[in-house]
Amino acid sequence: MGAVSRFLESDLFWSFRRTPTAVLSAIVAFVIVVGAVFAPWLAPYNPFDLASLDLMDAFNPPAFMPEGTAAHLIGTDDQGRDVLSAIMYGARVSLLVGVSATAFALILGVLVGLLAGYAGGAVDAVLMRIADVQLTFPNILIALLVDGVARAVLPREVHDEIAIYVVIVAIGISDWPRFARTVRGSALVERNKEYVLAARVIGISPARIMLTHVLPNVLGPLLVLATLNLGLAIVSEATLSFLGVGVPPTQPSLGTLIRIGNDFLFSGEWWITVFPGVALVAMVLSVNLLGDWLRDALNPRLR
After folding, report:
1. pLDDT tens-digit profile of 164-179?
2. Distances (CA, A) of 122 to 59, 99, 117, 118, 248
3. What is the pLDDT of residue 247?
4. CA distance linking residue 262 with residue 11, whole number of Å
5. Where are the transmembrane segments (predicted)?
6. β-strand partners of 82
7. Total domain count for the chain?
8. The domain containing residue 200 runs over which residues?
9. Please, is 64 exposed, middle or buried when counting C-beta atoms within 10 Å of its C-beta (0-12, 13-18, 19+)?
10. pTM of the model
């Protein structure tokens, strides 16, 4: 309770309360996360339970249209799946991949950045040149390359079983240079400060100095970068799934739902792709707006 009280009395929470955009974004993000995490209990139907599907319910329009029914508030798709339930379950996969890929990129980038910034010299030059080369390619191209290599190396059955992990690694590998360069810049500044030099004198190991002395001083920029990168990771996953190389069809994400609905967009069943698209936009936009607020709130020059 003491930590909660301190947070409620902090400048960060005061800034949050005074920023309507941040409050609204937090509410939208909270609703989406709760709906996704608790989808098995909150969703009206289980859209991926084949025994409960009825093709006679296919292409039902939303409830606010003349032929719509209250049983399916925003309609059904070509297989009779409730679109609202499919969005809630699809958001679970999108959030899982986005958060996991961001965490993977964060850990890899922090390790590389700390090593490059603290060691310096040839180690720094080699690691940063690798990051520079990767930054010249679009993230989605790197992710497609990693996924393609995994498909070529692994048997099809094995790849289908671990497809979601392949996507997480592919997106994480494409995003780590941003974290590495941020941490490396801060590590270069911190490594020559007196407290780091004192730690070296008393015999503390370089690994401990980096993790317990240098890393805490870069947590603020890392938190902001991770928040902004989460939105990019969700979009990358949706793009891969839309192209048909993302998560497997048995675990469809919002990108998969948009791709499925795109086939029926011009035949009049617009709700199958529009509502998953709106959910994706709301999710990414709320995360990005929170990241923008957090960047400004943690920047002392803007206080």
Report:
1. 888 899 899 988 998 9
2. 61, 33, 11, 12, 42
3. 79
4. 46
5. 21-43, 93-118, 214-235, 270-294
6. 76
7. 1
8. 11-48+66-302
9. exposed
10. 0.89
